[in-house]
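Researcher: Please predict.
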Amino acid sequence: MLRTLQEGEVRPLGQSGRQKVDVRVLAASNRNLRAAVDTGAFREDLYHRLAASVLVVPALRDRPEDLSLLVLHFLALFAAERGHAPPVVEPSAMECLLRPPWPGNVRELRNGVQAAVVLAGDGPLRPVHLPP
């Protein structure tokens, strides 16, 4: 990968010649790659190639103001997948959904909302439909 990024060429499997490529790489990690470089767990040269522009997304627990928007988005998304309007959410259920932490971040919140929409069926979404 590093060679491809540096030289802009690849050698397709089974071919002897190189082929020019024009690519951009978007990489994501749930680890601190700078720390991994410092401990020798990640190649420094590859890190510098990938870290030209770094976007750090804070954990969901550090941005509780995003919770309500994400909950509403997932409610609409999963209801639409089932061909329904988003469910009415009882205030006590919304309170539970907005209570951090969500240790699995957005993925855990998404899965929790999806399960709740399925369990609620055509009725209102209640706390009993939410994951423990």
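Model: The first strand starts at residue 9 and ends at 10.
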